[in-house]
Amino acid sequence: MKIAPSILSADFGCLIEDIKKIERAGADLLHIDVMDGHFVPNITIGPGVIRSLKNRVSIPFDVHLMIDEPEKYINEFVKAGADIITVHQEACIHLNRVIQIIKDCGIKAGVALNPSTPVEMLEYVLSDIDMVLLMTVNPGFGGQKFIDSMIDKISDLNSTKKNKPFKFEIEVDGGISKSNIKIVTDAGADIIVAGSSIFGTEDPKKAIYELREANKK
């Protein structure tokens, strides 16, 4: 299991310090939520912020584009330092083309699904992507409650992955804590995005350790 803390829950007044804390704490990825105020009802950061962070930390940047027409901005995010770019199926008219744009930049490509979007919508691109991100809350804001019915969705995607087999990783984002991480990974999640349960604590190292321990029980 990999852990990807989301900077959506970080203190933006001391962002680099917060990122260095979770890097030292053993996080595997830094999940960077990019929101445009159109695709989701919130606005966060752009390529400039990512560029300013990239040379100051070594943790891989997992960039989640919650924006309309993401194909227009992929090159900028790659230049800024993205190691993985995930776009939403719901935001892409020509999803296969967008995936190829990302792959042609030499980085990993992921596709995200909102809670109400069925996994069948990815049937014809699963062989082309490195990651599927399943949202287990409605995207836009941190600190929301996990949608319990998403466990079946994770399991269904994991079964599809095993039956081929495909090579993509399953990332899960939204409302994950010590109390439910085990059921999420048992369902098939490979990467856990956690925001307030890590950045919202006084000791991120302890928080990451406790998440890993809860996953073993």
UniProtKB/TrEMBL annotation:
Gene Ontology terms, MF aspect: D-ribulose-phosphate 3-epimerase activity; metal ion binding
Pfam families xref list: Ribul_P_3_epim
CDD domains attached to this UniProt entry: RPE
EC id: 5.1.3.1
InterPro entries given in the database record: Aldolase_TIM, Ribul_P_3_epim, Ribul_P_3_epim-like, RibuloseP-bd_barrel
Binding annotation for substrate: S6, H64, G140, F141, G142, G143, D173, G174, G175, G195, S196
Binding site for a divalent metal cation: H31, D33, H64, D173
GO cellular component: cytoplasm
Keywords associated with the record: Carbohydrate metabolism, Cobalt, Isomerase, Manganese, Metal-binding, Zinc
Residue positions of the active site: D33 (proton acceptor), D173 (proton donor)
Cofactor note text: Binds 1 divalent metal cation per subunit.
HAMAP family recorded: RPE
Family stated for the protein in its record: Belongs to the ribulose-phosphate 3-epimerase family.
Annotated protein name in UniProt: Ribulose-phosphate 3-epimerase
Native source species: Aceticella autotrophica
Gene designation: rpe
